[in-house]
Write a sequence for this structure.
């Protein structure tokens, strides 16, 4: 069985690529964000599931890039025991799978699993901002959606890239290149 990970900034195309490969090749696509509804029922995880939505977004973006990245790392670490247990259950089904989500940070995944992944960084700030306006994640105004896209593309993107490369996960701006790499990794 073949297993791979896709991580990276929001709105970079992770779900699109995973869904496309899954449909074309009969592989299971596991979007770890889909676990959030269940995690929200756990009092220890509820804080992290709603962490960003419980903040004043305008004030939140006053934090430094490093502080915002630490929040993502802390959230990802909190989610990891739940994610890794679910992933092991899925792997017991003996079906190939693509695990995908922003919280699958290379340093965390590499601790427990020895299969490869890729990092998606987004094609351009304009693309990320456009997708963010079309399908808002957090920001209720265009100005806040722009700040969020700036954080995704200019701050978090650099952090994902650095961490991905440190753990042997290639980072891609072009989703087509990432897709080709995933297909090669999976022998498809």
């Amino acid at each position: 069985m073949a297993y791979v990970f896709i991580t990276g900034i929001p709105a970079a195309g992770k779900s699109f690529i995973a869904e496309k490969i899954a449909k074309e090749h009969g592989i299971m696509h596991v979007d770890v964000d889909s676990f959030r509804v269940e995690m929200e029922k756990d009092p220890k995880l509820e804080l992290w599931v709603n962490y960003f939505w419980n903040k004043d977004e305008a004030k939140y973006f006053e934090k430094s890039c490093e502080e915002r990245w630490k929040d993502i790392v802390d959230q990802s670490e909190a989610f990891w025991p739940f994610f890794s247990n679910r992933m092991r259950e899925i792997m017991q089904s003996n079906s190939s799978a693509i695990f995908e989500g922003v919280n699958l940070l290379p340093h965390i995944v590499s601790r427990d699993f020895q299969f490869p992944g890729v990092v998606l960084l987004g094609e351009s700030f304009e693309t990320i901002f456009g997708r963010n306006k079309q399908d808002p994640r957090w920001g209720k105004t265009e100005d806040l959606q722009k700040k969020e896209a700036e954080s995704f593309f200019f701050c978090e993107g650099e952090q994902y890239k650095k961490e991905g490369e440190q753990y042997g996960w290639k980072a891609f701006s072009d989703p087509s290149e990432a897709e080709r790499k995933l297909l090669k990794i999976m022998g498809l």
Summary: The mean pLDDT is 93. The CA atoms of residues 2 and 186 lie 6 Å apart. Residues 3-185 form a domain with the Rossmann fold fold (CATH 3.40.50.300).
